[in-house]
Structure formats: C-alpha cells, structure tokens
What we know:
The protein is 79% helix and 0% strand. The protein has helices spanning 10-36, 39-63, 66-90, 106-126, 130-147, 152-171, 174-195, 200-220, 223-246, 260-282.
Amino acid sequence: MDVVKPRWTNSSFLLYLGAFTVLAAASAAYAYLSTQYGHGALVGWTLLMLAVLSFLAVVLRRRGPWIAGGLFAYLTVTTFGTFLGALFTWWGWGGVQQNAFDGWHWVTWLIVVLVLIAAAVTLVLYRFPLLVFTIAILFWYLVTDIVSGGGSWSAVVTLFIGFFYLVPALVSNRVYGFWLHVASGLLVAGPLVYWWHTSTADWWLLFVSGFVFIAIGRAARRSSWAVIGSLLMIAAAVHFSIDWTTGSFTFFEGPTRAWTPIVVFAVLGFVFVVLGLGAARREPPPE
C-alpha cells in the first residue's frame, strides 16, 4: 500500500476531531480511574482501553476510511504507553519524575523504547504519517534524557536533534517528511524560546528568527516552518505590545498607550503580507 497524504475535507476534519476527542476522554478516564482503583485494577482498565482501540483500528483499516484506521492505530500506540506505565507501576517499578531530564529514568526509557517499537511496527502496517511525528518526538526525548540533565545542555541537545531531523526531512517521502519538518521546526524553535525570552534584545532575536524560519520554509517548500516562524514573530509582537504600552518613554505622554498594540500588529500584518507576496512569486503556479 502506498503512503497517502491526508487531505482537508469535511470527513477528515471530523475524523481527526473525533479521534482526538476520544484521546482526551481516554486521558481523563485514566486520571479518574487512577484515583478510584488500585494499581492492579488500573492495569485492567488500561488493558481494556487498549483492546477496544486496537480492535477498532483493525476493523476500520479493513472496512472504513484509511484515515479512521490510521487514527485509531495512533490512539492504540498512545494507549499502549499508558498501559505500560500502569503495568510497571503495579510491578513496583519507577516513580514520579520531578524533572523530565534530571536523573536516571531507566523505567521511562524502557517504556519509550517499547512504544517506539510499537509505533514503528504500526507505521509499517498502517502507513499513517502522524506516527512519524510520534517516533520523532519519542526519539528526541529518549536521547535528550539520556545525555543531558536539564537546563541549557538539554536545550543544546534539542537544537542539535532539531537540525539533525532536517536532513531526513528534506530527502524522505514527501508525506512522511512533513511531520519530520514539523518536529524539526519545533525542536529548533524550543531552545530559542528557552534562551531568548528575558530581555528586549532576546525578543528581537526571536523576531528575526521568525524571518529565518520563513526563509527555510520557502527553500524547503514546507509551510510548517513558516507557521512556526510566524508564531515566533507574533510572540515577539505580543511582548513588545505589552512592554511599549505600559513602559516609560520620555517622548510619550501618559502612563499607558493603548494604541500601541494596534500599531504593532498592523505593522506585523503588513510584514506578513510582504513576505507572502514574495513567496508567491517564487512558488510554482497551481495545476
């Protein structure tokens, strides 16, 4: 079976919405059941959820739209990780992690490895592109947790992995490559926000970084980079709007300038329009 790209239609929107609503309900159910039952019973409940979702994935793969089967396969992989966590807790393994990257988390690493294997097998069987994003994020977490202990060094490792993902994203299947580009962009943007969120100079650096992200998206013909870059620029605009509205500048009168956010976002809007016009000249005409 060839890899198919999900298309934005009424049915695909409703299927994605329904599947992620089910995921939210399953997460809420897990949180509720963990307060009502012991560890052994919780294993049974998570196993029941895993069995129901995997059954639906198999049935929908054979008889329903391929997107529905892929979405429930994705939910099955997620629930598998929850089941493993409940099972290992019942066995007396692990505990509550106070820091995501601080310390030796061998039980968490084992769960991540097992879920990675399950996601890879499910990707081979269902060819559902969203699983690529899951694999990329789990691999990032595993490597970062093993080689770093939090703080700036974790940010450095994250930045490195983000740029590392860019290479296979450029040469891989266009459908799978989309989610690699998303993971790459998020992992590159995350450390920048971690480092540059304090001073005015930091926010200007984030704003300029937005232009770089948009340029990468134009060169790679991937809109995910442009989306992430625009979010960085919007975040900087929000900071400047708040700072310049209540700040003290001698050439302004009054303690507040309520019109400042209007001007800031108007300018930002025109910047986006100019960038969009420039990108339109370089894009191939639609078929």
